[in-house]
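Write out structure tokens for Glycine-rich domain-containing protein.
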Amino acid sequence: MPLQIDGKNVGEIRLAQIDGTLAVMGETCVWDSGEWRTIYTSVRPLHFEVLEITTAGTHTITIPDWCTHVAAILVGGGGGGGKWRANSTTGQGGNRGEGRVLDLAVTPGTLTLALTVGAGGGAGASNYPGGTGGSTTLLGASAPGGSGGSSSGSPLAGQEDTLPIDPKVVPLTDGQTQFFIGPSGKTYGEAGQRGGGGSGGNSELTKPSAPGGDGWARIWMWNRDPRT
């Protein structure tokens, strides 16, 4: 006999709780062979929190007691631009920081995670390359900083790039499939941002080089229904 509510046959019903266990709100639950079954059209979290940290240095991330999974994007600091001392030759722009994507299972009750965000590399002095950016690290994983630009060479602009993201690995991105590392410094004296490289410079032309952008991290924390 089909399930009836108020005398009408019901083929399916959407619930927020089944047998005292939370189900994913909005997913389809059907009555099958004497029990409720949940049909998951996608893996959706019951709880989630997203943090973005853009300040260089050491940070303590507090893990909520409901969290079972952590995903993160790590980007190292951008390299500083190099600086040439004579004629019209310019220093080379710094390289972008590298990116890493993490997908981690977390034991419930884990209290904190230690995150280090790498600083951007310093601008090169006359006839010197730019400094290397610092690494951004979390749970033993590391996104190295970009190398500094050489004291002479091209391009003047620092490096920037995109970091591809698999939505199956990192949820809650609303369909976003890539994140941007940068922008970089593109003219004399323009610093990189968010892991982008700083611009090159020239002493004789009194054109300053520029530092790379500090790295950054975005951290997703969520849990899933145990049946997924």
